[in-house]
Amino acid sequence: MSADVQLNDVWIRFGDFVAARDVNIHIQEGEFFSFLGPSGCGKTTLLRAVSGFLDPSEGQVLIGGKDMAGIGPNKRPTALIFQNLALFPLMTVWENIAFSLEVKGIGKEERRKKANELLELIALPDQGEKMVNELSGGQKQRVAIARALAAEPDVLLLDEPLSALDLKLRQHMRTELRAIQQRVGITFIYITHDQGEALTMSDHVAVMSQGVIQQVADGSTIYDHPETAFVASFVGENNMFSGKITEVSEEYAVVETPSGMLRARRTKGKGGSLHRGDEAFVFIRPESLKFVNGSAFDNRVNANIKQQEFEGSFWQVFFDVEGNNRTVKLSMVNDGSTLPHEVGDRVELGFSADVAIATPAGELAAE
Amino acid sequence: MGFWQDFFRKNGKALGLFLLGSVACWMLLMIILPQLFMLDFSFRTNVPPPLWGTEAHGYTFEHYRYMIYGSAQSTESYNFVDLSVFGRTILTAIFVTLIDVALCYPVAYYLAHVATGGWPRLMVMALIVPFWVNELLRAFAFKIMFGSTGIINNFLVAIGILDQPFDFIRNSVALYSGLSYAYILLMIFPIYNAVESLDKNQIEAARDLGSPWWRIHWRVVIPHAKPGITSGCTMVFMLTAGALAAPQILGGPSSLWFTQIIYQAFNQAGNWARGSAYAIILLATCIIFVLCVMKIFKVKLGEIAR
Q1: Residue B236 contacts residue B97 (beta carbons within 8 Å)
Q2: N or C end of chain B: which has fewer CB within 10 A?
Q3: A80: nearest CA in chain B?
Q4: Angle, to 10 degrees, between the axis of helix B258-267 and the axis of helix B272-296?
Q5: Maximum Cα–Cα distance for chain B, whole Å?
């Protein structure tokens, strides 16, 4: 069984502090949905509202179309995987996994059988008799997943469960989590501040900042078509120019910046209101920025090369750009040819309007 | 030898010697010597002090024998008086210990995981401050409260639950209450320390997995707090079984406490030997009992000391 989750006009307040501000999200049945945002943005609070550990100050949480108001965490069709896993250290691995069955009053033999099936699923057969603390970090991780799945939830909630693992294991567990989700077919709601995790695993990502949902979309839309300045600056790397709008059309906006007039695709939807004279930002990704070699570009800026870094498959080139006090970065694939310029050279950089994004000026992600 | 070298390097010679010396003095003078002296005394015939060390002051089992069979002139086959007082003391101590666990576990859990803000501190103060009052005064306060014209009887009569005052003292209610209260802090704090170290997420995880509150306690909180509970039980049981003031003041006319018999042997009968023998019996019984309980609940001595 799987269920959809709806958050309708959800506000969560702690005294004067607003942890979630007018959140409206519909998470589809059976999808892998991530909340992505810096720490303190309210994503864990939202997860606790879904799992039932706190009630929203206003608004509704619906799971499978049913209003969850007044229903405690032990009665909801959700299971939560905690950031520190919260396995029970005084129980064996199989008792941990079978805890939810014990709660339901299922006999020991059947519990054991079900635990063994789940141990099989998480590729830890014959480890049931061990104590939790005898397992490695990755194994504990999988036991936590099995324990949650044993409760046969309609929705699995994951609160940054990979953050305690080292990089290699984390990347491995990403693939594994995604595989498990597809096998069991239930809705996963995943909380993370790691955009790599969010973008690789999710069907949809909600980017969050200061209690506000900035954008909900699939990974590539989030990356290629950010709707707000925050999303553009938080997800991936982006160079930014700020200025005033001089011209707006259906698809494009022209922004007058100290570095020159820049033409870019304009944001729609949430960040849609762009008008002549408004403060605006233009974002251009490092991989979309090019050296001008006689070819035509919509936008050109003058720059001095400050530094060049070799990163194996990429070259990263850093510039001081006239009229922009932020360092601008260009990355180019290392195709075996040498770099066209040297540090200190004065060059012209160009980019097409279609790969740049103009957003209303607004909150930026912390660097 | 590495330990001692480290010890002296860290503390210096003078301080190191002082620390070692003071601990050794404490152990020797306050604990080991008196107990050895008592043990020795309990196996000697009861003679007046001028004869101590003479031939008349020889070794004998008569005091231990007396505890079981009574005096040789007695018509009874066993010393029913002392044995029943001893049995009742131990049973009551067990009962009081269980009452304290039942009272203190919820309070400790509340302090550690439920109360927020300034409440825990205020509650701890409220628990500690009454213990600034002398133990005897507290016992007398209980006696007054539970007396036939005490506040409790007056209240119960006034609201009509009782027709006439109930004799709390004769029925040992005052004694049980006084003893339960006397060592309650020694139960609350070990349990509090143990419960407090439990990760809140584990409680939430159990709840999230569908567990009702009682199963969370049974399967997660109590197993975690077991060393603390055992530690509290050990102390409360030992101290209750060895209590003197509360039974003396709050006990009914017919309910004698074993420590009172020991007290009488020393101070009224002038029979130090028998008093020593009885004290050793009480101590040995308590230690054996506690070790058995620890064995049953699979708690190690080291865990209790944590």
Answers
A1: yes
A2: N
A3: B208
A4: 160
A5: 76
pLDDT attached to residue B224: 93
- Model pLDDT for residues A117-166, shown as the tens digit of each residue: 999 888 888 889 999 999 988 899 899 999 999 999 999 999 988 887 88
Q: Report the half-sphere exposure of A299 (CA within 13 A, side-chain side).
A: 29
Residues of A with Cβ-Cβ distance to B212 under 8 angstroms: 74, 103
pTM of the full predicted structure? 0.81
The helix/strand/coil state of A214 is: strand
SS3 string of B33-57? HHHHHHHHHHCECCCCHHHCCCCCC
Q: Which has the closest alpha carbon to A76: A86, A68, A84?
A: A68
Are A74 and B223 inside 8 Å of each other by CB? no
pLDDT digits (tens, 9 = 90+) for A72-123: 999 999 999 998 999 999 999 999 999 999 999 999 999 999 999 999 888 8
Quick one: CA dihedral B82, B85, B88, B89, positive or negative? negative
B216, closest residue in chain A (CA to CA): A103
Which residues in chain A touch residue B208, judged by CB atoms under 8 angstroms apart? 51-53, 73-74, 78-80
Kind plus residue range of the DSSP H or E element containing A11: strand A5-14
**From CA B85, how far away is CA B64, in angstroms rounded?**
15
Residue pLDDT, tens place only, B213-232: 999 999 999 999 999 999 99
CB A165, CB A140: distance < 8 Å: no
Q: What integer pLDDT is reported at residue A222 of this predicted model?
A: 93
| B201, B208, B212 member nearest A84 (Cβ) | B201
Task: Strand A66-67: give its sheet, edge to edge.
Answer: A17-27, A5-14, A58-63, A66-67
Alpha-carbon gap: A175 to the closest alpha carbon of chain B (Å): 25
CB atoms within 10 A of CB B219: 19
The proportion of chain B whose per-residue pLDDT surpasses 90, expressed as a percent, equals: 37
Q: What is the rounded CA–CA span in Å between residue B306 and residue A239?
A: 56
Which residues are paired to A61 by β-bridges?
A7
Residue of B270, B250, B277, B245 lying closest to B82 (CA atoms) = B277
Structure tokens that stand for B207 in this block: 């709840």
Distance CA A229, CA A282 (A): 9
